[in-house]
Amino acid sequence: MDKIISISELASCIYSGATLALGGMTMYRRPMTFVRTLLRENPHACDLTLLCFTAGLESDLLVGAGRVRRVRSCYFGLEVFGLAPMFTQAANKGEIEILEETEASLSLGIRAGLASVGFMPGRAWVGTDLPRLRPDVRMVTDPYSGEELVAFPAINCDVAVIHALEADPAGNAIIGGNSGVDVELAMLADVTLITTEKIVSKLARADIASPAVTGVALAPYGAWPTSCHPHYPLDGEEILHYVEACKAKQFDSFLAQIADHMSTSLSTSKMP
Question: How far is CA 136 from CA 29, 36, 153, 188, in A?
């Protein structure tokens, strides 16, 4: 079955109120072309819950554009480039809801969702004040040992968008190293969409298998200006341009010009 669609069709799959998972890690292999297309072409995608193991530039654009209602991530920032400016501003003003998460709470919540059970127990958060910030996280007693454990509620996801190095028309995809929880998100989501640097006729192996995938869209340099090893490195100059625009309170202008600005920068960037 051929699952190839256009990037515009892919972006149109996101609807108001959806829980949207974005693949990649920190500043690596983030679905940037998808986010730019969504902001440009799909005004109905709003009130989103962002689900990211780590959130970065791609998520900051969505928050700054006013598309996000709630964030679930154990990290939200731009690594060496500092805080994520629009997320930081929205958080300080109380404009978005932030669910306190850690690597453990996300991992165990996703595991519960994959197992179709209501929660997954663990020792993480035991003896901390974190449960006070999350009334939905409960204490339970292990029926075998009597040990007090933390019950992390199942996490569910409507749509996951993951950028791949290669994919084939059937939906098989290779994402390479530093996969984060992308494979798990692909299986967890009701709809999994792949953007990819390259489409080949058939993959001999896959990190994400065809049955989990709904659609595949070709997006060369689709993670830029984040990196996509081994195809291209991080474009620090472009990320600094974004940070400076936000500091100058020019995010709206940046967003309005994002199509021309990104395409011009891409055509002149020093990529292999």
Answer: 32, 34, 7, 20
Which residue(s) pair with 122 in the sheet?
Answer: 150
- The token pair at 178 is 């530093």
Question: Cα 124 to the chain's mean position, in Å?
Answer: 23
Q: Which domains does the chain have, with CATH numbers?
A: 7-100+156-165+178-197+212-265 (3.40.1080.10), 119-153 (no CATH)
Q: Given this model, what pLDDT does residue 240 score? A: 95
| CB of 159 closer than 8 Å to CB of 189 | yes
Residue 95 CA to residue 87 CA, distance in Å, equals 9
The reported pTM is: 0.93
The predicted model gives 6-15 an average pLDDT of 97
For position 44, what pLDDT does the model report?
95
pLDDT band at 78 (very low <50, low <70, confident <90, very high): very high
Prior bond of 230 cis (ω within 30°): yes
**Contact by Cβ (8 Å): 52, 72:** yes
Q: What is the pLDDT of residue 259?
A: 56
Give how far Cα 90 sits from Cα of 20, 72, 98, Å. Answer: 19, 14, 10
Residue 146 buriedness (CB in 10 A; 0-12 / 13-18 / 19+)? exposed
Quick one: pLDDT band at residue 177, thresholds 50, 70, 90? confident
